[in-house]
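Sequence design from tokenized structure. All designs in this work follow the same two-part layout: the structure record, then the generated sequence. An example of the structure record is given first.
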């Protein structure tokens, strides 16, 4: 039997089984009413045997059967059906049938049961997911109807056919189609089908895009010919016509003219096949090759230019005599303006204006020349034929005559001005970034003035109180020296506390180079937290620290890492300032993480603020991007630069339910790596 026939057969078996049981009960009840002993007669014995046989069918038929009462309780289930869901029949009987369905599908199940109860003896079919005991998914096609039992009550009989493989195949097909559509979009390649006999054409989504045609429009040959460039139409018609007549594959290129007048270049490749009726069909692809054609055009236009560049390359050749004065230099160096005019007869240090500024470098170079040894990559400043400063890298090798007498040097020079200036620009950028990071720290300190003042005022107030107490103890008769000593000790402790705060603030404000030392991240976190306590209190933000005592040490600059943490915490506080529907909570966690099997440290700062969108996530670390009305957009960019300078990564993740998590991953201190 086919699966649907099996389900129908099983449903009939369940009905006969249920009816037979009801008949037996009715006969037994009638006998009891008459006061007659219930002795099975020949008909009843046959009925019992039939019921037994149908029960065997019900239990062992390879279809899942459920009997459900109007309240949705499982009255009976066959062994096969329970096993398909990973249960025994006893585990399901007496339970709500909804327990084997997903929460989001249960309203649908209730409606289906209600429909069966409203239309007794009518069959209804639907497809739905069920949950196995192990949590896996089982797709079924259910055929159900409501029936009257012998006592007049209703029961719903459900036969379930396993269609999981079919559903998985359908899902895989949909996914494959989605992948294909994405691949076509990325490669600018669409697909098409063409029945030569009828002219019927089918296009993929990307083909519609290439032809700039609405997907609701039926593609046709007249429309295609209208889109094709007038100069290419005849060639296209000849190519496709010959392919249709001879049943041959084809591959050709032509141009399209878009409605706005723009021109596209496309390549169409098709394979000829025969359909079931012997008709000729073509299946193929059409690719937008406009970019490639444009690149090819530009390349052809620039071939001569590149030949000119080769002739005027930044490398030039030179020779010097035994006295190290230039005897020859390649001609194109002078015409290109790369080497100064009139260098023949001069030494290299005569040409270089930096010879007096870097005497040690030139002394070493002259010593190498006098020793007649090769030299490589000597970089010096010079001037081109127009007097503009350039940087030159030169290498040379001594040459000798047949008798071994030294004749001079031969070598090559390269204009490295662009590279040197790029390095100088990079160094300037690094210094500018350091300056900006310093300014950011100072700005942050300005924003935290209230918190810093609060941190200092607390121990200072304690110092004054303890000093007053000390004076009081000393003023007693006799003086309470032990109490006075204790007060002085407290003064010292509170003074140290204030000194620690000032030390941390000065360290943050101080402009220093990065200093990599072994650090305990928990200490770094607690010191940074101390400087934002006032901001936390002002904005009614509670904090939760989840720090582990067994974390690896890291190599880092304490001040720069504190700057990162303060910036992230301040961002979290600002993100929650308008939150009123949930607690304002800032969570800082430090834990271990493993990447590629290596132990790392994971530090996260989580807020419950407004969060961010996907577009913001992609740009939030870009310099000068900000969502704040008065922000510069440099805070997170600087933070990422600092973290990356420590060999780590800084990333942002949106939280479910609102808020964001900033995540820092740092490598451990090398000496702690086992």
């Amino acid at each position: 039997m086919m699966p649907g026939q099996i389900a129908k057969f099983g449903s009939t078996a369940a009905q006969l089984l249920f009816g037979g049981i009801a008949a037996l009960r009715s006969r037994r009840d009638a006998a009891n009413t008459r006061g007659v002993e219930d002795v099975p007669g020949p008909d009843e014995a046959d009925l019992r045997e039939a019921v037994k046989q149908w029960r065997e069918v019900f239990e062992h038929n390879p279809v899942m059967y459920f009997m459900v009462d109007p309240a949705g309780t499982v009255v009976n289930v066959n062994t096969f059906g329970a096993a398909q869901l990973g249960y025994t029949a006893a585990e399901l009987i007496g339970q709500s049938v909804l327990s084997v369905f997903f929460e989001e599908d249960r309203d649908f199940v209730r409606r289906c049961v209600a429909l069966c109860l409203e239309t007794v003896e009518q069959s209804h079919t639907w497809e739905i997911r069920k949950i196995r005991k192990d949590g896996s998914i089982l797709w079924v096609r259910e055929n159900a109807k409501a029936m009257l039992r012998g006592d007049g009550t209703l029961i719903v009989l459900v036969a379930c056919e396993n269609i999981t493989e079919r559903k998985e195949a359908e899902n895989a097909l949909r996914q494959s189609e989605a992948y294909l559509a994405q691949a076509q979009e990325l490669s600018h390649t669409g697909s098409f089908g063409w029945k030569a006999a009828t002219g019927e054409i089918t296009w993929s989504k990307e083909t519609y895009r290439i032809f700039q045609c609405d997907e609701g429009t039926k593609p046709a040959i007249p429309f295609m010919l209208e889109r094709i460039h007038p100069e290419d139409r005849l060639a296209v018609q000849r190519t496709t016509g010959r392919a249709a007549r001879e049943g041959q594959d084809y591959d050709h290129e032509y141009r399209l003219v878009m409605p706005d007048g723009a021109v596209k270049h496309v390549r169409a490749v098709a394979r000829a096949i025969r359909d079931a009726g012997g008709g000729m069909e073509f299946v193929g692809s059409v690719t937008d090759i406009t970019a490639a054609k444009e690149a090819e055009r530009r390349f052809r236009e620039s071939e001569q230019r590149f030949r000119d560049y080769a002739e005027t390359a930044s490398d030039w050749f030179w020779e010097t005599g035994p006295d190290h004065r230039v005897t020859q230099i390649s001609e194109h160096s002078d015409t290109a303006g790369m080497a100064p005019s009139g260098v023949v007869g001069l030494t290299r240090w005569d040409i270089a204006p930096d010879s007096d500024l870097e005497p040690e470098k030139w002394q070493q170079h002259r010593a190498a020349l006098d020793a007649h040894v090769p030299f490589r990559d000597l970089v010096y400043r010079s001037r081109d034929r127009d007097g503009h400063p350039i940087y030159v890298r030169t290498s040379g090798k001594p040459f000798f005559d047949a008798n071994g007498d030294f004749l001079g040097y031969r070598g090559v020079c390269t204009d490295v001005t662009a590279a040197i200036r790029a390095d100088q620009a990079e160094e300037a950028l690094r210094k500018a970034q350091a300056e900006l990071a310093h300014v950011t720290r100072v700005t942050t300190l300005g924003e935290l003035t209230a918190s810093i003042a609060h941190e200092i005022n607390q121990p200072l107030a304690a110092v004054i109180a303890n000093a007053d107490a000390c004076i009081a103890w000393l003023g007693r008769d006799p003086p309470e020296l032990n109490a006075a000593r204790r007060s002085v000790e407290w003064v010292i402790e509170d003074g140290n506390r204030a000194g620690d705060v000032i030390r941390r603030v000065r360290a943050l404000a101080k402009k220093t180079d990065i200093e990599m030392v072994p650090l305990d991240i928990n200490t770094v976190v607690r010191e940074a937290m101390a400087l934002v306590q006032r901001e936390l209190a002002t904005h009614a933000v509670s904090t939760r620290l989840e720090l582990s005592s067994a974390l690896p040490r890291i190599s880092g600059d304490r001040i720069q890492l504190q700057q990162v943490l303060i910036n992230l915490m301040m961002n979290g506080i600002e993100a929650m300032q308008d939150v009123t529907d949930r607690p304002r909570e800032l969570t800082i966690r430090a834990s271990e993480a493993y990447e590629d099997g290596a132990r790392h440290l994971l530090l996260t700062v989580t807020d419950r603020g407004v969060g961010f969108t996907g577009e913001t996530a992609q740009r939030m670390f870009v310099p000068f991007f900000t969502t704040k009305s008065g922000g510069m957009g440099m805070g997170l960019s600087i933070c990422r630069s600092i973290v990356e300078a420590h060999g780590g990564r800084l990333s942002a993740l949106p939280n479910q339910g609102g808020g964001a998590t900033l995540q820092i991953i740092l490598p451990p201190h090398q000496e702690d790596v086992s």
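The radius of gyration is 43 Å. We note this feature because it recurs in several other targets discussed in the main text.
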